[in-house]
Amino acid sequence: MLGNLNLESLTFVVADDAANFRKIAVGILRDFGAGSILEAKDGKEVLETLGRSQVDMLLCDTALPGINGFALTRKIRSEENPHRYIPILLLTSHTQQGNVERARDCGDNMVVAKPISPRSLYSRLQWAAENERAFIESESYCSPDRRFKVEGPPAEGGRRADDAKDAETKDDAKDTQE
Amino acid sequence: MSTSNARRIEKTSRFAVMARRPGGVSRDQALARAEATIDKQKDNYLEWVVRDLNTLESYVNAIHDHEGARDEDMEAAYSKTAQIRDLGATFGFPLTTEVADSLCELLHRMRHARMYGRGAVQTHLEALKLVCTEAFKGKQPNDEKPLLDGLGRVLAKYPALTGNGP
């Protein structure tokens, strides 16, 4: 059973070109108790933010203008920098298996399906907090280790095998309406 | 992926260390607060989406004016439709998400197949405007199956792309 999260001293970056989406995601994180939440509307702003702030988690849309979420993750993972190993959650409406695999190849920790709900986001944060993975690194690759065994699934969502399933997204969407 | 010099590095992120500390907002409280925030924003949602629909309509008109020939028109319409799709279900409008998703797929297929159909785009836009109204709040896709089936038939006239979406 996954527990509570203490996000008080943590800094998040929410990167999405849609201001309304950022507003909702920021609001949810604030309600979760996040200490600081920074916003970025494109890949360039993400890199600038990472350059001047200590960031603990990046939530990043795949379809960012300029540098998209995949390329951005690859860039962060490929260069020596203070944020090379931070958890990166990729936000996308396209949860086909190929996209999930692409996200992992780029070095993302997890895919979060849009539209998001508080429950789906919380479960992903729990998962990231309680199931850290080592990194596999070579000259051309740096990504959380895929050879990862789960000691019992999380109470709701968050399992890698579920990332590509539309069903969970729809369940989560229903949750917001009840 | 080069594996010749691959190495495994154990890293404990600051996020994991700090998030696992005792204290903070309890899970139940965090979820309740977030749901309450979304509920409060629900009144604003229809205002937002009407603004987005007006912008989308101007992009769709540009598509019509150029008979789908300009990629920038398609991209602008796709991007705005995706923004509408990505918030619908969060605010209790799952049909908005479904219809917007169908329009996204249509624009994606049209662009890549270089096929333009004024009626197909306009039908989707009108359907989207319809479901972005108070009367459709909370309605599930199964509640409006004929509408979605109809859009699906329109969409099926354009070849599906293999791959991972835009």
3D shape of chain B: extended
Q: Can you count the beta strands of chain A?
A: 7
User: What is the CATH homology-level superfamily of chain A?
Assistant: Response regulator
Could you please say which CATH topology of chain A applies here?
A: Rossmann fold
Write structural notes for this entry.
The complex is a heterodimer of chains A (178) and B (166). By secondary structure, chain A is α/β, with parallel strands linked by helices. Chain A has a single domain (11-175), classed as Rossmann fold (3-Layer(aba) Sandwich), CATH 3.40.50.2300. Chain A has six helices and seven strands, in the order βαβαβαβαβαββα. Chain A has helices spanning 19-31, 43-52, 69-78, 97-106, 118-130, 166-175, and strands at residues 11-15, 36-40, 57-61, 88-92, 110-113, 135-138, 141-144. In chain A, strand 3 (57-61), helix 3 (69-78) and strand 4 (88-92) form a beta-alpha-beta unit. In chain A, helix 3 packs parallel to helix 4 (97-106). The radius of gyration of chain A is 15 Å and the shape is globular. By secondary structure, chain B is mainly α. Chain B has a domain at 44-156: Up-down Bundle (Four Helix Bundle (Hemerythrin (Met), subunit A)). In chain B, 66% of the residues lie in helices and 2% in strands. Chain B has six helices and one strand. In chain B, helix 2 runs antiparallel to helix 5. Chain B is extended and about 60 Å long. The model of chain B has no long low-confidence stretch (mean pLDDT 92).
Descriptors:
heterodimer, A: 178 residues, alpha/beta, two-stranded antiparallel ribbon, disordered C terminus, B: 166 residues, Four Helix Bundle (Hemerythrin (Met), subunit A), 6 helices, 2% strand, extended
What is this entry, summarized?
The complex is a heterodimer of chains A (178) and B (166). With 178 residues, chain A is an alpha/beta fold. Chain A has helices spanning 19-31, 43-52, 69-78, 97-106, 118-130, 166-175; strands at 11-15, 36-40, 57-61, 88-92, 110-113, 135-138, 141-144.
